[in-house]
Amino acid sequence: MSPLSILRGRLASRYPLAAVLAGLLVAGLALTGCAVPPADRSGGPLLACATINPWGSILSELAGPRVRTVSIIDNPATDPHDYEPTPADARLIARAAVFVENGVGYDSWAARAVRADPEPHRQLVDVGRVTGTPDGGNPHRWYSPSNVQTVAAAITAALQRADPANSDYYARRRQQFLTVGLAGYHQLIDQLRQRYPGVPVGASESIVAPLVTALGLNLVTPSSFLRAVSEGTEPSTADKRRIDSQLANHRLTVYLLNSQNAVPDVAEQAAAARRAGIPVVTVTETLAPAGASFASWQVDQLRRLSEALASARSAR
Asked: Per CATH, the architecture of 194-315 is what?
């Protein structure tokens, strides 16, 4: 029950006229859509949160100092697939004026929390819906450069709805983020796409598939293997044999390893790649090291990939 509803109930027993006025106030807010976001009712700063820190970092860049931003999963050692939310997480989501969830089954616990507390004033950004990713699709949308821009626009729009008096401020923050904050990120993507078109690479799971596509590289690892590792199911024997053959016969140039999900099959492949002299580039699902921004994290990974590709090319 909202604070205004509680107030109206208390007034009804003592001051009937005041109760009527309170009721009119509630109705007026509902009709005009000018309801105050949850975090503003206490007079504190606007609160916005995201389930994982790739989106949380972007949210922070777009919101700036006017908004308090929080990422629920903010530890590189945490596997988001296995995360169990706490009561504090539920309270955080309930209070947030803007909430960013990844969707596509990646953080289904967040969707349940939202359904359990359907706050009408909360501005929800569901990344899967915003990017048009179907159920069962690759949920790692923060590894897609085009999706990052799409989600940034959706987050900005949510912030503007939550805090309309500062709409221009959020528009400026988005422009700054896209043109300055992500400048090095886009520069490296363009360079890699121009230098290594069609170069075959392997990967431990589907996390990097959107980025590999954007870079114009050729991901030769069977998609069924990538999906199985990502979803925590057993890869087929045929897929594992195919990858073993690719490694033994140097049919890929670089192997991309998600260090946050190095299951035994993946660990064996990474070891085989190193024995074969194939560079192994580690990537993570969440920001690393601790305290990194989305841009610095991605730039670091892209630089290491660029160095590995250059090293492999010079060795041939």
From this structure: 3-Layer(aba) Sandwich (3.40)
